[in-house]
# Entry
Amino acid sequence: MSAKNVGRILYSCPFVPMEWIAAHGLHPARILPGEAGANTSPYSQGTCSFLAGILDEIERDGDFSGAVFTTVCDQMRRAPECLHRAKSDRSFLLNVPSTWKTDASRNLYISELQRLGRFLVRSGGASPTSEGLARVMLEYDEKRTSLLSLRDKLDPRRFTEALANFHGSGDVEIEAEYIGYKRSGTPIALLGGPLTRSALSLFEVISMAGGHVALDGTETGERTLPRPFLRDKLEEDPLQEMADAYFGHIPDTSRRPNDDLYGWIDREVEARAIQGVILVRHLWCDNWHGEVGRLREHLEVPLLEIDLGGAEPVVRNRTRVQAFMEILR
# Structure
């Protein structure tokens, strides 16, 4: 294991606070798989393609100290049992309650973070002090703020890649030559589950069809960022504040109730003058598939649903995206 990668903690779910990992002296590394697991993947049988892609990445990656999964989706909760024994021993399953607007649910999430903390210590980390946790939280909050300030100055795909790179490394690295992009075309919102690196070509397909992604509301984009930390709350109890910023504010289909997701969509669609929504989901994703009908009734703009199953899913959906953009002109 290289010295550079000692202490890397792999994860894929936005409800795993990267600050909590970093405060333990370890390196949070959120996985953005190159592509969803193909039929040739040893994990393709009985798992969704995205989970297979995540497991493929972990099996290829030898330089990590631990891998954290959550119970947010039924597929991901199976991840530790799917991994080969040598790597499953380095895995942790974080229980994220679906019911979330009660004190009991919040307290359960906090107790799960504390349990995760003990796993992180066993993985080579050290328990943080309250002051140390608050310091790390402020550092990451400032990085997110600086990144968000560039949202409208970057090509939409490059902005989503910058978010993914930040979650993967904890760094904000954007070359000055890419700042100053002028967006044009019909404003589109992406909504749905996590993307893969190969699925990012969807941004170019939309652009070539006369649109631009004014909002990335996928799990890979802005929707799953925690709210900014409140400085006074940080001084009182940084762990409670971190839990509230993540568990108490990230809108998602998995939440019960998930009305806040629709409130977030309404605000962003209006604020960014969105003319159409493209819902992106992986096959077997019951959470998002179950919301399609409700979204069609709720939205005041057209909705196109596409799936990322099979080989070259973006290429397969190119004509549908082009036809959708024609409707919006």
In short: Confidence is low (pLDDT under 50) at residues 1-5. The radius of gyration is 19 Å.
